[in-house]
Design goal:
heterodimer, A: 155 residues, five-stranded antiparallel beta sheet, 8 strands, B: 388 residues, alpha/beta, nine-stranded mixed beta sheet, 11 strands
């Protein structure tokens, strides 16, 4: 078995290949309604399980705990709390980011679920901080999770 | 007894772990499998079934990686299965091997794990970006390091744990790996080295993290009847457990791995273990990040919630401590070719229980050991209990 340490990957005899495949993902039955509400009405919606009293945000078609089909939609508002966060300083290729970016897991008030998103309009952050979603303008919204530009501390 | 037949491990094999090895994935699988067979004193013709464990296809860069690796794993003209449960694969693969024999269907099973992450160029981190929900998470630009940073932050916050206490795990494991002939990142480092290393995504720094690696590992599993014929010192698989939590990781608290506890309880019940810290002599919990060793010690019920950093600081988890944790050097020291890294942990417990761990051998007379792996989106636990 080879024991030499290869520091330059091109030193080993090799073949460069690609795995080319592009994808088009449907938003799904529940996703379509969630993103339509976000784009057209600027609302963040969840679905509620009547058996488990759990409000799923983002919404789900079914409750993973009891397998009930979820029909009840609830506007959970735009306010939440930072459950945990990270300050990213490097890119996935290892390069340094020009400016650190804060990402947080935000739990919505009155809901079971949460969402990972950027935190903006602040350089400081802590667990327990109250934040609110800042939506892009209606013209800019494309029915994507990035229709939420970021979350910012509530004033 | 659980199952129709008791199952023993009778041989183990492990390749070097390196950032980039010349061998192809098939060749790595072959090297490990051949070593395990030689150690067991068996030939390929003695093997009735083969289970292969390997992580996302995107690493090796071959869709249908299971069939691609089959010949290297010794599967020619044999019943063959590839299993994959993310980072949990390495410990799950011998569990799948266990049920091949425990079901009564086979008397021998070759268990092989392989990962060649270096094929994904320039860095396997690119493959990790596509493990997230394509609609809710990937558009934000998700990166694997972040979710660990989020979990580490939550764990530290919940129990008021300082980074210097977590860094002790990295110091211990990289130090332990100095005695491992296969190790990729063995080193004598200090807590300050960890705290001064490059910040990747706060609180995660460079030396908190295991490397990406190429490597292979293998075990030979046999039924009790065969074990009695071919060896005087079999190591028994006395407990198996596995569990998955919600894929919606944003719905969880993250400070504690419930799913690891459920997997551990399943395995302990089968093994008749009632007091894990007293009855377990050595453990290899999954440590791709330093905080994960602590997180998993708690999930495995080896200590109370939030107590693992204290035990580490007191030296309890050193090789000569009361409860040696990751005497191999773990993923932080030996390396992290995903599936092979998990199986490396089972190999280590096998060698420790047989007294064959060389310079890594823990003192005393270890009779019961556990290995655990963890994966998917911070949601999967696989646990195995071995006894001499």
């Amino acid at each position: 078995m080879s024991i030499e340490k290869i520091t330059n990957p091109f030193d080993a005899r090799h073949w460069i290949g690609h795995m080319e495949a592009d994808y088009m993902y449907t938003l799904g039955v529940v996703g379509e309604r969630f993103f339509k509400e976000l784009k057209e009405n600027g609302r963040i919606m969840g679905t509620r399980c009547p058996n488990c009293s759990i409000v799923y945000v983002p919404p789900r078609m079914y409750c993973e705990r009891c397998f009930a089909k979820l029909e009840e939609w609830i506007d959970v508002g735009k306010k939440g709390t930072i459950h945990t966060f990270t300050i990213a300083t490097i890119e996935k290729d290892g390069k340094k980011l020009e400016k650190p970016v804060i990402y947080a897991l935000i739990k919505f008030e009155g809901a079971h679920g949460g969402m990972i998103h950027k935190i903006g309009e602040t350089d400081t952050v802590c667990i327990g901080m109250k934040v609110e979603a800042v939506l892009k303008s209606p013209e800019e919204r494309k029915a994507s999770i990035n229709d939420i530009a970021y979350f910012r501390p509530t004033k | 007894m659980y199952g129709k037949k008791r199952v023993a491990i009778v041989g183990a094999g492990l390749t070097l772990f390196r950032r980039r090895l010349k061998e192809t994935g098939k060749e790595l699988a072959y090297e490990a499998a051949k070593m395990a067979l030689d150690a067991a004193g068996l030939e390929l013709r003695d093997i009735q079934s083969v289970v292969m464990g390997t992580a996302p296809d995107a690493f090796d860069g071959v869709h249908m990686k299971g069939e691609y690796l089959a010949d290297g794993a010794g599967a020619y003209h044999k019943p063959y299965t590839r299993v994959f449960v993310g980072g949990g694969t390495g410990v799950f693969t011998p569990l799948a091997g266990w049920w091949h024999i425990a079901s009564g269907q086979f008397d021998t099973c070759l268990v092989v794990c392989e990962e060649k992450m270096s094929s994904c160029y320039p860095h396997p981190q690119y493959a990790f970006t596509t493990i997230f929900d394509p609609i809710l998470e990937r558009p934000i630009g998700m990166n694997l390091i972040w979710i660990f940073a989020l979990e580490m932050q939550r764990y530290m916050h919940k129990h008021n744990i300082k980074k210097e206490h977590i860094a002790l795990v990295s110091v211990k494991n990289k130090g332990n790996a100095l005695d491992h002939p296969c190790a990729q990142l063995a080193a004598r480092i200090t807590v300050d080295d960890v705290l001064n290393s490059e910040i990747m995504a706060w609180p995660v720094q460079r030396l908190d993290v295991s490397p990406t690696s190429d490597g292979g590992a293998a075990l030979v599993l046999v039924s009790e009847d065969v074990a009695k014929e071919i060896t005087d010192n079999p190591v028994w698989i006395d407990g198996v457990g596995w569990c998955i939590d919600s894929t919606h990781w944003t719905n969880r608290d993250l400070y504690y791995p419930d799913y690891v506890e459920y997997a551990a309880r399943m395995a302990y019940k089968m093994a008749g273990i009632k007091n894990p810290p007293k009855e377990i002599d050595v453990a290899e919990p999954y440590d791709p990040f330093d905080y994960k060793e602590l997180h998993h010690m708690e999930g495995l019920l080896l200590c109370k919630k939030g107590e693992a950093p204290k035990l580490t600081a007191e030296g309890v988890t050193q090789r000569d401590g009361d409860l040696p944790i990751n005497p191999s050097g773990g993923l932080l020291g030996v390396g992290n070719p995903i599936a092979a890294a998990g199986l490396m942990k089972v190999c280590e417990i096998f060698w420790q229980l047989r007294g064959e761990a060389g310079k890594r051998q823990i003192p005393g007379d270890p009779r019961t050991g556990i290995a655990q792996a963890w994966g998917d989106l911070m949601q999967y636990g696989s646990v195995i209990v071995l006894r001499r």
